[in-house]
Amino acid sequence: MKPEEQVTSFLNYIRVEKGLAANSVESYGRDLGRFIDFLRKNKLALRQCRAIEIRKHLLALERTALQSRSIARHIVSLRQFFLFLVREGVLPSNPTDNLESPRVWKSLPKHLSLEQIQCLLEQPDLKTARGIRDRGILELLYSTGMRVSELTGLRVSDVNGEAGFLRATGKGNKQRIVPVGRPAMKAVQQYIAASRAKLLGKRLSAFLFLSRLGRPLTRQAVWRMVAVCGRAGGIPMPVTPHLMRHSFATHMLAGGADLRSLQMMLGHADIATTQIYTHVVTERLQQVYRQHHPRA
Question: Which of 102, 126, 193, 266 could disulfide-link to 68, CB 3.0 to 4.6 Å?
């Protein structure tokens, strides 16, 4: 089989047998696509790949100013791909076994202030069906800290307005219950009652958030809408759904939430991922110390 066909087989494997989310499969596909381009450019076959060839590929990626986090992700993609080839009997050994990942420096996540969040929420035009929908989306992103892929995958049946929670499907198709604040739930219910039917038209759809053509809203459409609202509100930094997720987590910890609860709400498999937000706890401790210690 050609390298491209091997990559296709691997992507089908992680999609069907491993149950990886579509976003993860796309990421693997992009990384391996760049590796296939490297093989084609250097006239190499998969069987000819050794650790030295893979290091050359990674060095070429570094020269494109790719960050260490992205390089580390490429290494994971290559490791899993070659492991698959070994299991399938295509290769006798995995050339990535002794490959070291670059040190990834963890930067503190940026977040919006409470004033900026309020300004952002006020941007949609509530006189239009799309504006009512956009307000519901913004309220829900900030109220729950959901990933944008989780939001676009929501179905009407996933929302329990009376109990004040929704069912989100995260990475690996893992489902979790997420509490929703009253303002956000009110905005979502207003969208369902006054706006969704207008967007749906004569179509049928189980998905909650719809485009103007009545189709399920895409991740890209949500990103564009959030960015437009951010610019309209005069927010100096680019506003994205992930920035709103960071803001949710930061404000929760600043309000006294514990890491374990935050981990469950964000859908992190490992609490180490949630610990990046502990800088908020440190800042709060410093503030308490300065306020209450007589010689601070």
Answer: 102
